[in-house]
């Protein structure tokens, strides 16, 4: 008998022939279906205008919109319209990411999601903060490697008895007269570094998808926040876990408002009396720090002369002068850390060379960790700075001749 496998197809060969026949039969149908689907999608896209806000297509998923690198937006204008609508509570699904995050991520636009469509721009505008007028740069500053430093400090608070430095006394002598010994009184000023920090989590997706150097941006805004905190503490710090600010220091002289002076005013007499309380050798280094709220009041200050008045405050060279206006010949610098109009600290006359600061050598320390939020796919940026400071003076000085105390730090009291 002939071999059965020699006269018949094997089971494997038979299956191959069946599969081939089915494929040939289905090919025209598959091509037709694919063509119809493609035609329908093209028609849908042709009918749609650029979606904004609630006009966004809810059918196309985020992955399909993302494939062109623009998240489905045809232009920068369309992207900006969607961002604007999101600010009003109408969220375009193209701006939404696929998951929530506790730190910066793509899910919430203001947390970084709106930065992702990089094809439109790689430049991020940022509000300028903290100008070059860093207060700590004006202080008597000492960077150290350790944690603390102790300074000898003059304990002088009065010159009424004719002595200087808290006890050094000189004499006019006749020939052969015995000399009398005297010595200064020395105190101790100790500073201990205090830590302040910023912690910013950022998702891996945002770091990967953002079109500009997000790491540099995070480092920049973090360091600016620490600098802002430091400058604020030099004016408003309590001295507990932070520097002692001049508004809370015993050396501050607070000049009373004029009798009957309105709450939201500054008058020429205020300026004159503040200047008279500034320690004379400090005047050459002194600056006026103000809250911008008080500028209209300063423009209106005048000294009454007969039936008219003489302006007190005019920017040197007129209103076009720069970079600073002056008052009593010293720069007037607007800063955010001063109080609002009518409250103590809205205008301060200060000589920062009489304020000592301690900083950690190396400045702001920046670290990045992938481990803290590893299970959330987030990198954590940590910025840490350490600083302390307080006025050199322990108290205002009573002059040898005179009836009122003097200080390198003078403020105007709250108006009643």
What does this structure look like?
- A hairpin with a 2-residue loop joins strand 9 and strand 10 (about 330-335).
- The chain is about 25% helix and about 20% strand.
- It has helices at about 5, 10-45, 60-65, 75-85, 205-210, 215-235, 270-275, 295-300, and strands spanning about 140-145, 150-155, 185-190, 195-205, 255, 285-290, 300-305, 310, 325, 330-335, 345-350, 355-360, 365-375, 380-390, 410.
- Strands 5-15-11-6-10-9 form a six-stranded mixed beta sheet, covered by helices on one side. Strands 1, 4, 12, 13 and 14 form a five-stranded mixed beta sheet that branches.
- It folds into two domains: about 65-125, no CATH class; about 130-170 and about 175-415, Major capsid protein gp5 (Major capsid protein gp5 fold), CATH 3.30.2400.
- The chain is α+β, with helices and mostly antiparallel strands.
Key words describing this protein structure:
single chain; 25% helix; 6-stranded mixed β-sheet; 416 residues; disordered N terminus; 15 strands; alpha+beta; 5-stranded mixed β-sheet; Major capsid protein gp5 fold
Terminus-to-terminus distance: 126 Å
Per the CATH scheme, the topology name of the largest domain is Major capsid protein gp5 fold
Shape: elongated
> Which structural class best describes the helix and strand composition?
alpha+beta
For the record, the CATH architecture of the largest domain stands as 2-Layer Sandwich
Structurally, how many domains make up the residues? 2
Instruction: Provide the β-strand percentage band.
Output: 15-25%
Top CATH class of the largest domain: Alpha Beta
H/E element sequence: HHHHEEEEHHEHEHEEEEEEEEE
Sketch the major β-sheet: 6 strands, mixed
Mean pLDDT: 77
Radius of gyration: 36 Å
The tally of helices reads 8
Biggest sheet, spatial arrangement of strands? 5-15-11-6-10-9
Residues in helices, as a percent range: 10-25%
E-strand count = 15
Unreliable sequence segments: 1-6, 44-67
CATH homology superfamily of the largest domain? Major capsid protein gp5
Oligomer: single chain
């Amino acid at each position: 008998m002939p071999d059965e496998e020699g006269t018949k197809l094997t089971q494997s060969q038979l299956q191959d022939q069946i599969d081939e026949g089915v494929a040939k039969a289905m090919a025209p149908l598959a091509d037709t279906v694919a063509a119809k689907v493609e035609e329908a999608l093209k028609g849908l896209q042709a009918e749609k205008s650029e979606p904004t806000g609630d006009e966004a297509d809810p059918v196309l998923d985020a992955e399909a919109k993302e494939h062109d690198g623009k998240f489905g937006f045809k232009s920068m204008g369309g992207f900006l319209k969607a961002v604007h609508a999101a600010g009003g509570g109408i969220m375009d699904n193209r701006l939404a990411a696929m998951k929530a995050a506790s730190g910066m991520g793509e899910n919430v636009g203001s947390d970084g999601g709106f930065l992702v469509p990089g094809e439109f721009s790689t430049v991020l505008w940022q509000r300028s903060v903290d100008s070059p007028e860093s207060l700590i740069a004006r202080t008597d500053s000492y960077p150290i490697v350790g944690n603390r430093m102790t300074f000898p400090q003059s304990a002088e608070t009065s010159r009424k008895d004719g002595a200087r430095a808290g006890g050094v006394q000189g004499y006019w002598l006749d020939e052969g007269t015995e000399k009398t010994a005297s010595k200064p009184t020395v105190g101790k000023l100790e500073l201990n570094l205090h830590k302040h920090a910023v912690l910013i989590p950022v998702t891996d997706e945002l770091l990967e998808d953002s079109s500009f150097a997000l790491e540099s941006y995070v480092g920049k805004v973090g360091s600016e926040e620490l600098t802002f905190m430091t400058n604020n503490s030099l004016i408003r710090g309590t001295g507990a876990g932070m520097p002692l600010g001049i508004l809370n220091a015993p050396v501050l002289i607070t000049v009373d408002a004029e009798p009957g002076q309105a709450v939201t005013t500054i008058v020429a007499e205020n300026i004159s009396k503040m200047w008279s309380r500034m320690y004379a050798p400090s005047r050459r280094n002194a600056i006026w720090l103000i809250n911008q709220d008080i500028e209209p009041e300063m423009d209106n200050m005048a000294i009454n002369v007969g039936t008219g008045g003489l302006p007190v405050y005019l920017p040197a060279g007129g209103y076009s002068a720069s970079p600073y206006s002056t008052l009593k010949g010293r720069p007037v610098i607007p800063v955010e850390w001063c109080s609002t109009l009518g409250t103590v600290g809205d205008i301060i006359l200060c000589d920062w060379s009489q304020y000592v600061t301690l900083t950690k050598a190396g400045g702001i320390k920046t670290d990045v960790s992938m481990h803290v939020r590893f299970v959330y796919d987030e990198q954590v940026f940590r910025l840490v700075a350490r600083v302390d400071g307080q006025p050199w003076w322990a108290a205002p000085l009573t002059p040898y001749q005179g009836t009122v105390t003097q200080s390198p730090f003078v403020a105007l009291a709250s108006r009643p």
